[in-house]
From TrEMBL:
It comes from Priapulus caudatus (Priapulid worm). The keyword Transmembrane helix applies. This is Uncharacterized protein LOC106819236. PROSITE patterns: G_PROTEIN_RECEP_F1_2. The keyword tRNA processing does not apply. Keywords: Membrane, Transmembrane, Transmembrane helix.
Length: 224
């Protein structure tokens, strides 16, 4: 229901595109002119300039700042977690083999020799939960960082045009800039086709579920 509501809202908000744009005859040149193109109607250009500025701020600048800030914060938390775990392993008392066993599984060391079976059930569960949360956080951090990287070229061109147009309302993008934007858009669109590979690369749980599903499908096919 939520997704349907968001889709309906987006369709309504951006439905103005069917009104402000259409097939426009472009002035010809000496060789016979250009064919008609789908462009904004000239009478709507002032209003669309305002809407484009609002859209750039709300869908580009603010989300980019929020995503980058949150990614940096999450990365710092992950680094702090591993620093704390390294400090705990350095302070652990016991044989080197025991310390490595405890730390490798994310179990807290409290100054006494410890094994898997000697940990309280609650402490063991908390350790596993903390380790699993860090794994998921690292995977999502990786995916969101790739998302930012692939969006950066397109966003940089769009932000450049936005700032220059604010300083010079008569600014007209050069052909080189338009071609660069098209290539940047290709990189941007790549993000929507590689999520499966990103989750397969960074998510151990995703790979395990995928293998189980594949094995289940193979068993079902062999039973036919």
């Amino acid at each position: 229901m939520t997704i349907a509501g968001l889709v309906a809202t987006a369709l309504v908000v951006y439905s103005y595109a069917f009104v402000v744009a259409g097939i426009v005859d472009v002035d010809g040149d000496a060789d016979g002119g250009y064919p008609p193109q789908c462009l904004l109607y000239e009478r709507y250009l002032p209003a669309m300039t305002v809407l484009n500025n609002v859209d750039t701020v709300t869908t580009l600048i603010i989300p980019s700042i929020v995503i980058v800030t949150m990614n940096v914060t999450i990365a710092r938390k992950v680094v702090a977690f591993y620093k704390r775990r390294s400090a705990m392993s350095a302070d652990a008392v016991g044989s080197p083999a025991t310390s490595r066993y405890v730390v490798a599984r994310g179990f807290p060391t409290n100054g006494a020799p410890s094994t898997h079976t000697s940990l309280p059930t609650r402490t063991y569960r908390d350790a596993l939960r903390s380790r699993n949360q860090i794994r998921i956080t690292k995977m999502l951090l990786f995916v969101s960082t790739v998302f930012i990287t692939l969006n950066l070229p397109s966003h940089a061109v769009r932000l450049h045009v936005f700032v220059v147009h604010l300083l010079d309302p008569g600014f007209v993008p050069t052909e080189r800039l338009e071609v660069g934007q098209q290539y940047a858009q290709l990189v941007y669109n790549t993000n929507f086709s590689i999520n499966f590979f990103l989750y397969s690369l960074a998510g151990a749980g995703f790979r395990k579920s995928l293998r189980r599903r594949h094995a289940s499908k193979q068993r079902n096919c062999s039973d036919l």
